[in-house]
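Design request, tokens follow.
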């Protein structure tokens, strides 16, 4: 491959983000990706960008690729609603579903501490923190029951019926999915009725804490979509991915509506969710993602997508699903890949803007772009870790790091009966 020179900006310190902030302009939705869930540098740069977006552009909340109940506890903590003496470690220990390192790490602890300090300042509007993902079926049902303990009416009855329906499956979503995937008897009707009753009750009896109501209704929505997700996961194909990202988009819409017409959101997710799926091989498989859906619903001028990648380094991942996390060597990028191209332009960190890349024909071709999942084998990268991508269309900006280091995770014990979750090999 012939390496054409590409226009790029240096990326050495926080001041070098000025050009990125200018390029973001007045976008309402800013999505910050990552090429793996186990790389410290991605979290650090996303934190630096998020702080500036909050302080300089008035962004309202951060939404991440995490479970709603666990992230909502972070939201309560940073807004000062937890009991006195609660520490950030007390909150992050709830991220005990494998892979625990995604949110249970020192990099996130630093961000959460900063958000709390920001919110504690009397002149600052409180910034929120929420989870967009769909996996927390049982946790969400339990949160709903706790919310309804002191309430009466149909919502309580609906919650009990939903619990009763799921009880035979011992809190294991995959057991439930296998049992109902190819038969007509399932718990779909029960969770839909729960969502309906929650919405009606809150419309009739608005509480003094609207966010508490929102939390309860969101947990009901998670239960509905999680039930659907686990059934489609067992059946195979790309449908479960689409259920998941469509749920993320629905949650994003609800959050923006809840926070009002002037609200602005920062999203942290893997590149496979953030980068517009239409400009990758995901499109051929009929898969969509939240980056694509947001552009379609809000317009490209209101949505800014930033991808990340690196040439070599170390990463946290597991050998197989549920395996102990370990620090792994990430080899130099495959020859002919996007990361290899950027490396050959000079061994420096770079910030690239898509509006500048679109003038270059070579950059508009499909190029292999590395993506590492929570399960990773460095020796088999060529068999599934490179996503054919038209970079300047998939993203609005790309942050390239020459060498990256592994995330610094907490040591958290996973839940005894860990519900299996389907991730693509490169997510």
């Amino acid at each position: 491959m012939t390496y054409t020179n590409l226009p790029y900006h240096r990326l050495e310190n926080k001041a070098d983000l000025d050009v990125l902030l200018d390029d973001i302009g007045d976008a309402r939705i800013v999505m910050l990706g990552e090429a793996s869930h186990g790389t410290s540098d991605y979290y650090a740069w996303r934190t630096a960008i998020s702080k500036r977006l909050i302080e300089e552009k008035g962004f309202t909340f951060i939404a991440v690729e995490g479970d709603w109940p666990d992230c909502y506890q972070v939201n309560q903590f940073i807004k000062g609603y937890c009991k006195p003496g609660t520490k950030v470690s007390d909150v992050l220990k709830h991220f005990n579903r494998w892979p625990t390192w995604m949110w249970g790490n020192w990099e996130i602890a630093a961000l959460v501490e900063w958000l709390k300090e920001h919110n504690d300042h009397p002149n600052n509007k409180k910034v929120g923190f929420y989870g967009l993902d769909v996996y927390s079926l049982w946790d969400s049902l339990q949160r709903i029951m706790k919310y309804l303990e002191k309430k009466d009416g149909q919502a309580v009855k609906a919650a009990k019926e939903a619990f009763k329906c799921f009880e035979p499956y011992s809190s294991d979503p995959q057991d439930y999915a296998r049992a109902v995937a190819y038969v007509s008897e399932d718990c779909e009707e029960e969770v839909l009725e729960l969502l309906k009753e929650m919405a009606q009750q809150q419309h009739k009896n608005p509480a003094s804490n609207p966010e508490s109501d929102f939390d309860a209704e969101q947990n009901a929505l998670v239960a509905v979509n999680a039930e659907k997700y686990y059934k489609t996961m067992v059946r195979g194909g790309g449908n479960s991915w689409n259920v998941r990202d469509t749920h993320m988009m629905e949650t994003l819409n609800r959050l923006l509506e809840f926070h009002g017409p002037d609200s602005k959101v920062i999203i942290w997710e893997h590149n496979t969710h953030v980068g517009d799926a239409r400009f990758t091989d995901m499109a051929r498989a009929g898969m969509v993602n939240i980056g694509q859906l947001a552009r379609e619903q809000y317009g490209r001028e209101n949505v800014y997508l930033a991808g990340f990648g690196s040439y070599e380094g170390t990463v946290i991942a597991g050998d197989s699903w549920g395996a102990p996390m370990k620090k792994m060597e990430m080899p130099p990028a495959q020859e002919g890949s996007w990361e290899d191209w950027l490396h050959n332009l000079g061994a420096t960190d770079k910030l690239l803007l898509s509006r500048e890349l679109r003038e270059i024909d070579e950059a508009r071709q499909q190029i292999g772009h590395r993506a590492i999942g929570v399960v990773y084998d460095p020796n088999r990268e060529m068999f599934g870790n490179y996503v054919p991508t038209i970079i300047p269309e998939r993203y609005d900006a790309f942050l390239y790091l020459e060498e990256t280091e592994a995330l610094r995770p907490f040591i958290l014990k996973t839940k005894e009966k860990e519900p299996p979750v389907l991730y693509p090999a490169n997510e």
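Comment from the thread starter after seeing the answer: thanks! Residues 33 and 271 are 5 Å apart (CA to CA).
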